[in-house]
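Narrative of activities, Objective 1.

The group set out to show that a structural description can be obtained from nothing but a protein's sequence at a throughput compatible with the screening campaign. Below is one input-output pair from the validation batch, recorded exactly as produced.
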Amino acid sequence: MDSKNAQTGSLKPLESARILLTQVIDYAGLFPPSQCSMSEAVLNFATYRNSNYGWMLGRFVLPAARLDEFGETAREFVSREGKPWQLAVIAGEDINDTLKRIASFNASNAPSIVCDVLEVRANTASKIENTVKALPHGLTAYFEIGMGDAFVDLVTALAMLEQRAKIRTGGVTREEFPESRDIIRFVRTCMAANVPFKATAGLHHPIRCFKPLTYAENAPQGTMHGFLNMLMMTGFARESFRAPVLEEIMEEEFEEVFAFTETGVTWRGEHFLSNAHLQRLRTKGMNAFGSCSFDEPVDDLQELGLL
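Output recorded for this entry:
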């Protein structure tokens, strides 16, 4: 993977990498396989924010039911900083209860800590519509939708209501990792409907790889999708590349085929996404991905010479 950083060791990333990776990782350390305690996760988040790679960090992800616990734990860290902490809240079964919890939390903690993203599981268009009607100003929702028979109808509902989608890209078992073609179908449908999205789970590494699926000793191994693969595939999907080509991008396992420069990224020496394309894919395509690890993505990107 071409990068001046690999030669200079500079902490300043190439412009293309900066555009592609700014605030791309939502930290979900409370969730498997990391499953940190609240105190560990909050300390990690505070540490990451103040690291040389804090510019890559997005929101802290947590269930609505743990908002008060988070507020008590984070108070001493937040008071030391001027920049607000932003939270992505996973809705409970009762969406109205979740929204009440968020309103109460924001009233007590803003502007130091702000819940400004809501993640909701929705299997019907009516669930999407009812949630959107109840959303307060300033709260952006991502709707996790399945890939079953109702998938196209759900994306259509999101498009009509100008909402965003969410896709699950992995888990702690092999069965939880969707096939590349299913992810591509999701992305192409969202891009055709102008529906931005975020991904969650399984995207610990930049390039597709075969690794342990948890941090347990003797953990089962499996093929994990790469977040650089997915970001690049989304960019090319926005440019109307055909599905077979997108599948090749998703299943690349050699980082050298992605060449980063100051002006963009080239795949296999011929297909190019300029910085303007990268900016569009981040704002109108893949907004972020949730990961229970921040260290793994950063360490791997350093090994690739991108940081």
